[in-house]
Amino acid sequence: MDHPEYLNNPLYVCGDSYSGIFVAPLTRKIYDGIEVGDKPRLNIKGYIQGNALTDKYIDSNGRIKYANHMGLISDKIYQSAKSTCNGSYFDVDPHNILCLNDLQKVTKCLKNIRRAQILEPYCDLPYLMGILQETPTNGQSVFPIAGPWCRW
């Protein structure tokens, strides 16, 4: 309302991470407001979500399948966990020992993998120090930029 000069600009509602919970519903409210004639009329074009949490249960369960598809856990471990956990890896029955054992294997495989950025270095200091000790002394680095970096 304070800046009517921007009303014709295309509007995209955007967010990542936890904002995935409210980006789509907020966008729906904007569209619904346009349909009933709410003012000001926004020039909504859509929404964008990056690495967004959308449903805690579905997203958490999808991580195991994704890890398998990315080659981070073997087909054997994935198939066993899928079978013993009945495809549900979140809020597991504490009496389902076979599932819990399989999930321990999954956790071990993913120990040094960053959940949000699987291709970036894990920013655990002992892990980084180990990489630094393995870095060739001829000036080349295992990192694409000089020295280790982390997204904190």
UniProtKB/TrEMBL annotation:
<dbReference type="InterPro" id="IPR029058">
    <property type="entry name" value="AB_hydrolase_fold"/>
</dbReference>
<dbReference type="Pfam" id="PF00450">
    <property type="entry name" value="Peptidase_S10"/>
</dbReference>
<comment type="similarity">
    <text>Belongs to the peptidase S10 family.</text>
</comment>
<protein>
    <recommendedName>
        <fullName>Serine carboxypeptidase</fullName>
    </recommendedName>
</protein>
<dbReference type="InterPro" id="IPR001563">
    <property type="entry name" value="Peptidase_S10"/>
</dbReference>
